[in-house]
Amino acid sequence: MNSTITFRKAKKEDALRLSILYKQVYMKTYATQGITHEFANFVTNKFSVEAIEKTIEEQDTVIVAYHKDNPVGVAEIVYNSPCPIPSVTAPELGKLYVLDWFFGKGIGYGLLNEVEKELTDKGYKELWLWVYIKNKRAISFYKKQQFECIGNAFFQMEVNSYENHVMLKTL
């Protein structure tokens, strides 16, 4: 891994920069048909500075990768998220986002490693996520990290729903 990358828990003062990182990665990944009203509403609300500050303050589950003290990737653990596959009761990897310019530098792996370390320290044995079925790069990454597809589920936005693989990893 690149030695100039460091990892730490997010702080409230990171929220503005994380808001931009979340929006940029989300739109690059999912807005393949352009920026619809639905997507604009979603990213504006979900990734607002206020929403990110609240997550950082209340949940303390945001891990950030930094290059020269600037965020370049982020992971979020969601402890109380119900898995669409009812038999799974593990925490969710809610986000694992890396800026395009930093792909292939071990940042995604490093973030996932930090998440797994935190979960195993707390006694968890599994981690689940969902990933858009058209996001081939992410699916390939997760498979390399020993996640297995255990079913599919739909993410509902406003009027459209998007099919996702539900993936599980034993820690």
Automatic annotation (TrEMBL):
Keyword presence, Transit peptide: no
Domain N-acetyltransferase: 5-171
Entry keywords, A to Z: Acyltransferase, Transferase
Keyword Cytoplasm: no
Protein's name according to its UniProt entry: GNAT family N-acetyltransferase
Top EC category: transferase
InterPro entries named in the record: Acyl_CoA_acyltransferase, GNAT_dom
One Pfam entry name: Acetyltransf_1
Domain of life: Bacteria
